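Key result, reporting period 2: structure in, sequence out.
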C-alpha cells in the first residue's frame, strides 16, 4: 500500500461558504490522511481501490464508493498503488456544517427528515447501487453550479441519500465505535497503520507490542476498547477486507489471493471468508462480476 494513516487523527479546519463546501483532490494528497473535523462529509471515490478506515471499522472501497461520514468521526481512504503512482481527482467531497440542516429545519419544517437523517449518520453510512450512482452524478455536477442552484443540488443529494433503500445504505459502525482518549486514539491509529503495512507477513501480537513499545496485554486491551475484539480478530478482518478487494479488482486465483492477503492456509481462509462474507470467495467474486462491478 502506498499510504497509511498518520500516527494520530489530525483535526482538519475547513472554511465553509454558506454552510457547505465542495472540493476535489488527487491521491496521494495532504488531505488524504487520518483526520477528523466537526463537519459532515459526503465523500465519493472516483478511482482506485483500497481500504476505507472510518472510526473503529475498516471496509473495502472501489471506484464509485460513496460514504457519509459523521461529525468528528476519524476517517481515511488508503488506495493500493504501485510506487510513484498517482490517481488524479480520486476524491470528490462536500463538507456540511454540523447544524446546517437542523438550522434549516427551524425555518422550513419539511427539511426535518433530512436533519434527522444527518443525525442518524453520526457513525457513517456507505451507499451502493442506484443511490451511489445518483449521488455521484450530483457531486460531479456541483462545481458547475452557483448560489441557489448549488444549494438545491445539495438538498437533492442529501434527499437521495436519505431515501436510499435498505439494501443500498449500510451503517458503517452500528455499535457506535469507542470513545478513546487522545493518547489511545494515537496508539490505535499507529496499530492500524502497522497491521496494514504488514498484512502479508506473519504478524504476532508481540511484533505489534514491540512496535508500539507496549506490553502485549496493553495492546490487547487497546484493541478491545477500540473494536470490541482483540488482536487476532482485528488482523483477520483487515486481511479479509484485503481479500475482498482483490477478489473484486483482480483476476488472481483464489489460492493466490489467500496468501496475498496474509493467510497461510487455504482451508482456513475459505472458512473465515465464509464466516465474514456469508459466501465462498468464488461466489463473492461472481456476484460482483454479474453486477458489472
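The corresponding designed sequence is given below.
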Amino acid at each position: 500500500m502506498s499510504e497509511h494513516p498518520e500516527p494520530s487523527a489530525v483535526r482538519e479546519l475547513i472554511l465553509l461558504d454558506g454552510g457547505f463546501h465542495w472540493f476535489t483532490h488527487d491521491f496521494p494528497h495532504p488531505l488524504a490522511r487520518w483526520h477528523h473535523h466537526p463537519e459532515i462529509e459526503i465523500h465519493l471515490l472516483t478511482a482506485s481501490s483500497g481500504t476505507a478506515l472510518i472510526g473503529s471499522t475498516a471496509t473495502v472501497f472501489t471506484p464509485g464508493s460513496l460514504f457519509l461520514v459523521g461529525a468528528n468521526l476519524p476517517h481515511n481512504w488508503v488506495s493500493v498503488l504501485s510506487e510513484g503512482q498517482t490517481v488524479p481527482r480520486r476524491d470528490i467531497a462536500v463538507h456540511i456544517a454540523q447544524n446546517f440542516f437542523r438550522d434549516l429545519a427551524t425555518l422550513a419544517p419539511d427539511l426535518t427528515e433530512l436533519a434527522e437523517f444527518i443525525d442518524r449518520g453520526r457513525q457513517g453510512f456507505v451507499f451502493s447501487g442506484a443511490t451511489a450512482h445518483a449521488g455521484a452524478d450530483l457531486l460531479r455536477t456541483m462545481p458547475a453550479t452557483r448560489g441557489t442552484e448549488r444549494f438545491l443540488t445539495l438538498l437533492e443529494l442529501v434527499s437521495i441519500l436519505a431515501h436510499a433503500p435498505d439494501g443500498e445504505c449500510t451503517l458503517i459502525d452500528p455499535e457506535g465505535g469507542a470513545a478513546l482518549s487522545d493518547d489511545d486514539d494515537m496508539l490505535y491509529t499507529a496499530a492500524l497503520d502497522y497491521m496494514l503495512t504488514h498484512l502479508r507477513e506473519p504478524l504476532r501480537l508481540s511484533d505489534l507490542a514491540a512496535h508500539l513499545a507496549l506490553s502485549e496485554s496493553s495492546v490487547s486491551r487497546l484493541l478491545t476498547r477500540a473494536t470490541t475484539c482483540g488482536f487476532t480478530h482485528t488482523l483477520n478482518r483487515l486481511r479479509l477486507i484485503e481479500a475482498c478487494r482483490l477478489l473484486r479488482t483482480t483476476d488472481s486465483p483464489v489460492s493466490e489471493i489467500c496468501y496475498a492477503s496474509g493467510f497461510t492456509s487455504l482451508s482456513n481462509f475459505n472458512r473465515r471468508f465464509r464466516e465474514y462474507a456469508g459466501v465462498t470467495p468464488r461466489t463473492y467474486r461472481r456476484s460482483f462480476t454479474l453486477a458489472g462491478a
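The mean pLDDT is 85. The first strand starts at residue 10 and ends at 11. This case is discussed further under Risks and Mitigation.
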